[in-house]
């Protein structure tokens, strides 16, 4: 299945108000947060089918629950940062109310439909997430299960050198070859940021 990709460009209308985070996020704290998020905190129902009704959302399509039907995934502004130097928090909601929302944490996100990486009959989602400061982004990949959302592997860092990565660039960061899932990561010690292929280690 061809991958679809979503870029959250402009934060919009705030769904609910909540205090911002108490300390600045770093790439390391992103890695810790992404493995501990509680997807049960979002009790709000799925958004409407037409994204115009919720102007701060854009959607991607995929069969995320394996029922053979296309679902719509929405990246939504969840909590607005209270501090001037803070980050907004985003959540992914779905048109199918049977798919629990996925809390992605702080920082603007872009979403990638990776297709079925773990051969469970369901499309998986990667989240490319901006840091509070600097140019080191975080990439995490998720699969929907009966118990909710599960990370397919440990999150990894993207050293983009403060350069914008195109949709095509992100779509080719994770590949499947001979049944093995790999990801391409820059060498931060190389001035050219040469990409190296590494085995993803699906859990």
Structural class: mainly beta
How many distinct beta strands?
13
Radius of gyration: 16 Å
Give a quick account of the main beta sheet: strands, pairing sense, barrel closure: 6 strands, antiparallel
Q: Helix coverage percent of residues?
A: under 10%
Give the ordered list of helices and strands: EHEEEEEEEEEHEEE
**What count of helical segments does DSSP give?**
2
Protein name: Repeat domain-containing protein
InterPro entries: Integrin_alpha_N (IPR028994)
List keywords for this structure.
37% strand; 4-stranded antiparallel beta sheet; flat; 6-stranded antiparallel beta sheet; 203 residues; mainly beta
Summarize the topology.
Layout: E1 5-7, H1 27-34, E2 58-62, E3 71-79, E4 89-94, E5 102-106, E6 109-115, E7 124-129, E8 136-145, E9 148-151, E10 156-159, H2 167-171, E11 174-177, E12 180-186, E13 195-199
Short characterization:
With 203 residues, this protein is mainly β. It has helices at 27-34, 167-171; strands at residues 5-7, 58-62, 71-79, 89-94, 102-106, 109-115, 124-129, 136-145, 148-151, 156-159, 174-177, 180-186, 195-199.
Give a written overview of the molecule.
The protein is mostly beta strands and 203 residues long. The chain has one domain (5-199). It is 6% helix and 37% strand. It is built from two helices and 13 strands. It has helices at residues 27-34, 167-171; strands spanning 5-7, 58-62, 71-79, 89-94, 102-106, 109-115, 124-129, 136-145, 148-151, 156-159, 174-177, 180-186, 195-199. Strands 1, 6, 7, 8, 9 and 10 form a six-stranded antiparallel β-sheet that branches. β12 (180-186) and β13 form a beta hairpin. The longest helix is centred in the N-terminal third of the chain and has 8 residues, at 27-34. It is flat and about 45 Å long. It starts with a strand and ends with a strand.
């Amino acid at each position: 299945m061809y991958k679809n990709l979503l870029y959250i460009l402009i934060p919009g209308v705030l769904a609910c108000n909540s205090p911002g985070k108490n300390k600045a996020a770093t790439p390391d704290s992103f890695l810790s947060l992404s493995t501990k998020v509680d997807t049960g905190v979002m009790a709000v129902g799925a958004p409407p089918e037409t994204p115009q009704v919720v102007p701060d959302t854009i959607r991607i399509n995929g069969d995320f629950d394996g029922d053979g039907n296309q679902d719509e995934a929405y990246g939504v502004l969840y909590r607005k940062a209270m501090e001037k130097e803070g980050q907004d928090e985003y959540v992914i909601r779905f048109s199918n109310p049977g798919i629990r929302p996925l809390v992605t944490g702080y920082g603007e996100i872009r979403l990638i439909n990776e297709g079925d990486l773990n051969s469970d009959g369901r499309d998986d989602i990667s989240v490319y997430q901006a840091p509070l400061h600097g140019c080191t982004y975080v990439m995490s990949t998720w699969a929907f299960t009966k118990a909710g959302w599960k990370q397919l592997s440990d999150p990894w860092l993207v050293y983009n050198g403060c350069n914008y990565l195109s949709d095509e660039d992100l779509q080719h960061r994770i590949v499947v070859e001979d049944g093995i899932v790999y990801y391409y990561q820059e060498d931060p010690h190389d001035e050219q940021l040469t990409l190296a292929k590494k085995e993803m280690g699906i859990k």
